[in-house]
Design brief:
Blueprint lengths: L1 H17 L3 H5 L5 H8 L7 H10 L4 H5 L4 H21 L3 H13 L5 H15 L11 H11 L2 H4 L2 H10 L6 H14 L8 H20 L7 H9 L7 H14 L3 H13 L3 H6 L3
């Protein structure tokens, strides 16, 4: 079982590095359902099938089992810092955001991913004041928009979603709506999405709905609200689904119901979230 888990984990990591779906990774060598179980450690895979899959993607058997290099270690550290950044942002923890920013700047070599995350952290750390965008230069805003569409960001769907979710204010409502519609189309099959991507998508939808309400664009809220409802009912999405219900009540004029939700959230320790919500 340990060997099965190791191979499954390495296949999953390789698939993420290549930016492939499970279907694309299986490459018709084995069925998608069987491949999925291999990744999760439920099934073993024969050496012949494994070699065929690796050859389909230009990876040698030796490369696959090689020990992680510095770039691999950087990727793990980067993913951990991204998760810490999201957590710190949700908690409005400016001290921790500054600490994460410093760690990101120390990663060598600096790539477009780390550069974008440093800029993202600057946006997050300043979103608590009304003139937050004044702290970003036009050059920085332009660079963030460019980084969102660079290849290494696009291949890592999770990072791209997190980035857009936290820098919405640099976009016009039309630009942002185009991005959201594109993301919804790309991630239609929610049953096949990993948990971290589901969480990032749910946060993105909530932030976009709030942005639309701030711009008095209520007509743009229907599609993201429906998508949020479509996401699975798992405990990790409880907060964003509750926030979605709050915004739905606001849109439908159910003020008393919306106020009840705000009260429950405040009592439950989400005061910072409540203070940022559309009133």
């Amino acid at each position: 079982m340990i060997i099965m888990n190791r191979i499954g984990n390495k296949l999953k990591k390789l698939r993420h590095d290549l930016g492939l779906t499970q279907k694309e990774m299986a490459a018709d060598v084995i069925s998608v359902s069987f491949y999925s179980k291999v990744e999760r450690g439920f099934h073993d895979i024969g050496a012949e099938e494994l070699i065929q899959i690796l050859e389909k993607h230009g990876v040698s058997f030796q490369e696959f089992f090689a020990e992680p290099k510095k770039n691999d270690l950087n990727t793990k550290k980067l993913n951990a810092l991204v998760n810490d950044l999201v957590k710190a942002a949700n908690e409005d923890n400016d001290i921790e955001i500054t600490n994460i920013t410093n760690q990101l700047m120390q990663i060598e070599p600096q790539t477009s991913v780390t550069e974008s995350l440093v800029l993202q952290a600057k946006v997050i750390s300043s979103t608590h004041s009304k003139d937050s965008l004044k702290k970003l230069s036009n050059t920085e805003k332009k660079k963030i928009k460019q980084l969102v569409f660079q290849k290494d960001i696009d291949e890592n769907g999770y990072l791209r979603i997190v980035l857009i979710s936290n820098v919405m204010e640099i976009y016009t409502i039309d630009e942002l709506t185009f991005l959201i519609k594109s993301i919804i189309r790309r991630y239609q099959d929610v049953a096949k999405l990993e948990k971290e991507v589901l969480i990032a998508l749910s946060v993105l939808m909530v932030n976009y709905i709030d942005f639309c309400l701030q711009q008095n664009k209520i007509n743009l809220c229907k599609e993201p609200l429906n998508y949020l409802k479509k996401l699975p009912c798992i405990v990790e999405l409880a907060l964003t689904k509750i926030l979605g219900k709050y915004y739905e009540d606001i849109i439908e004029g159910k003020k008393e119901e919306a106020d009840k939700i705000k009260k429950v959230l405040t009592i439950s320790g989400y005061k910072a979230n409540v203070e940022r919500m559309k009133r």
